[in-house]
Design brief:
With about 280 residues, this protein is α/β, with parallel strands linked by helices. It has helices at about 50-60, 75-85, 100-115, 140-160, 180, 185-205, 235, 250-260, and strands at about 40-45, 65-70, 90-95, 120-125, 170-175, 215, 275. The mean pLDDT is about 95. InterPro entries: KR_dom, NAD(P)-bd_dom_sf, Sc_DH/Rdtase_CS, SDR_fam. This is Short-chain dehydrogenase/reductase SDR.
Length: about 280
């Protein structure tokens, strides 16, 4: 593959920093038209400082929701997202910590209830990955850390949040095209995303009698800080070129799927995955 889609670049820390990317991701399209689809609702968004999380936060603000942004330690990016939510007429709080820690998950939900007195939407979006060309190179500690961040944290935060979610609430989990296609260099990440897909389907059945819908989004190659902080500069330069559309997607092209799934427009949707992936047919 020789197609160049982005300037070559790399960041040495994960999670990556959105303000250090060039070009920075697009988190809101000029063509987006809000319609108060989430008016009065309160949402928690993990990984909410940047990338898909930032885009979802801004779209939710435009639709009338208040948002709690959960992130690790990317304070500058998180503040930018808070500022954007406020600029678009809503309210936000930013909560820094490790979602892999059950105590922190409890603190997140407690803070949201103390601030707004309710919780309507939970977006489990935080994730990490450690590319290796050979399974023998993948350390057990990295494998366990990826599972802790990507799926154990999802279980922990959802369990705490459920005490406050009422009928009509929505849980949306971020899976990945790698759960369906696999990825030879992302063994840990792909495995967690497969678990997330199964967790989403099973939890949807479990919570259907309570009127709580559980769905997911399985993005393809999206231009977020996770990309330059994961891959070499050469691979970043070709990111997304192998999709039928021949380019990576922008967070602004994914966020409307999260709006739809959280809104009443998706009242008959549960246990489903939306595939925003540039044209890859995965039949899942």
């Amino acid at each position: 593959m020789n197609d160049k889609t982005l300037p070559a670049q790399h960041q040495d820390r994960q999670p990556g920093l959105e303000h250090a990317m060039h070009p920075e991701p697009v988190y809101l399209s000029d063509s987006y038209r809000a319609a108060d689809k989430l008016a009065g609702k309160v949402a928690i968004i993990t990984g909410g400082d940047s990338g898909i999380g930032r885009a979802v936060a801004v779209h939710y603000a435009l639709e009338g929701a208040k948002v709690a942004l959960v992130y690790l330690d990317e304070n500058e990016d998180a503040q930018k997202t808070v500022d954007e939510v406020t600029r678009h007429g809503s309210e936000a709080i930013a909560l820094a910590g490790d979602v892999g820690d059950a105590g922190f998950c409890q603190c997140v939900v407690d803070a949201v209830i103390a601030k707004w007195g309710r919780l309507d939407i939970l977006i489990n979006n935080a994730g990490e990955q450690h590319p290796k060309e050979d399974l023998l190179e993948l350390e057990e500690a990295d494998w366990e850390r990826t599972f802790r961040t990507n799926i154990l944290a999802m279980f922990q935060l959802t369990k705490v949040a459920l005490r406050h979610l009422q009928s009509g609430a929505s849980i949306i989990n971020t899976s990945s095209v790698t759960a369906y296609k696999g990825n030879p260099m992302l063994l840990d990440y792909s495995s967690t995303k497969g678990a997330i897909t199964s967790f989403t389907r099973s939890l949807a059945i479990n919570l259907a009698p309570r009127g709580i819908r559980v769905n997911g989004v399985a993005p393809g190659p999206i231009w977020t800080p996770l990309i330059p902080s994961t891959f070499s500069a050469d691979k970043v330069a070709e990111f997304g070129a192998d999709t039928p559309l021949g380019r990576p997607g922008q967070p602004s092209e994914v966020a409307p799927a999260y709006v739809y799934l959280a809104s009443n427009d998706a009242s008959y949707m549960t246990g489903q995955m939306l595939h925003v992936n540039g044209g890859s047919v995965v039949n899942g």
